[in-house]
Design brief:
The complex is a heterodimer of chains A (68) and B (174). Chain A contains five helices and two strands. In chain A, strands 1-2 form a two-stranded antiparallel ribbon. Chain B is mainly alpha-helical and 174 residues long. Chain B has one domain. Chain B is built from five helices and two strands; from the N terminus they run αββαααα. In chain B, β1 and β2 form a beta hairpin. Chain B is elongated and about 75 Å long. Classes of the chains: A mainly alpha (68), B mainly alpha (174). At the A-B interface, α3 of A face loops of B.
Chain lengths: 68, 174
């Protein structure tokens, strides 16, 4: 997919583990893992909002468009 | 076990009993068996023809067992809340193929056993030509019924494929 999820980069910058983030955002680890590995097909605005709030970042820090 | 599954299993068992009974009954009376045609003339069905008819009808009966078994498996999956999955789609595709085979065998078997067809085939052999008018006259309703079922299942396969796509998308939405 042309949309790349850079959640792992942002998580490394904020030094937060998947477990911690899943607790903060209130999403299962499996779903978060799907998002991190790029398996997810879509993301809800509410989820994006929670992640941005927890990681104190902008949606653009997590999502990136690459022309393939 | 649901009523639907119980019903299908009963049909399956009943069918097997009928098949066995039919074989025994036919073998019992393989003799020159007089019947009457539409002109009220006596037509003798030879023993060889009776056996041919029996084998064809038996094959027809046996060919419905497989789609029935597949339907039981499908209902079992639906009961387990496995509705939109790849296995169900494959099962339905197999049911369609099995029903096509059944329809073909049924047309062949029943038309051979049909009095008119026997007459027509005898007439055809004598005249060196093949005539299938007996088939179209007597089995058009049966063929339309089976074809309708097949078309409905094909439509259901498409619906289930779309359902599977939507389910996957929904499952992978975070």
């Amino acid at each position: 997919m042309a949309i790349i999820v850079n959640l792992d980069v942002m998580m490394a910058k904020r030094k937060i583990s998947l477990n911690e983030l899943s607790e903060k955002v209130n999403i299962t680890q499996a779903n978060l893992s799907n998002l991190k590995t790029g398996k997810a097909k879509a993301i809800r605005f509410s989820t994006l909002e929670k992640i941005c709030e927890s990681l104190d970042c902008q949606p653009a820090d997590i999502l990136e468009y690459r022309n393939e | 076990m649901s009523i639907k599954r119980k019903g299908l299993i009963s049909i399956l068992l009943f069918h097997i009993i009928l098949m066995v009974g039919f074989t025994v009954a036919t073998l019992w009376r393989v003799v020159d068996n007089p019947t009457f045609n539409h002109n009220n003339e006596m037509v003798v069905m030879s023993g060889a023809l009776q056996i041919k008819v029996m084998i064809l009808l038996l094959l027809t009966s046996a060919s419905i067992l497989y789609p029935l078994y597949l339907m039981i498996r499908l209902i079992k999956n639906l009961e387990k809340d496995k509705i939109f999955n790849g296995e169900n789609i494959k099962l339905m595709q197999r049911i369609v193929r099995a029903l096509v085979v059944f329809a073909f065998l049924a047309i062949l078997g029943i038309s051979t056993s049909n009095e008119f067809s026997i007459e027509f085939s005898r007439w055809s052999i004598r005249n060196g030509a093949l005539d299938f008018s007996g088939i179209s006259l007597n089995f058009s309703v049966f063929i339309i019924a089976i074809l309708s079922i097949i078309i409905i299942i094909i439509a259901m396969v498409e619906v289930f494929k779309e359902g599977l796509n939507l389910k996957e998308e929904n499952d992978l939405t975070v």
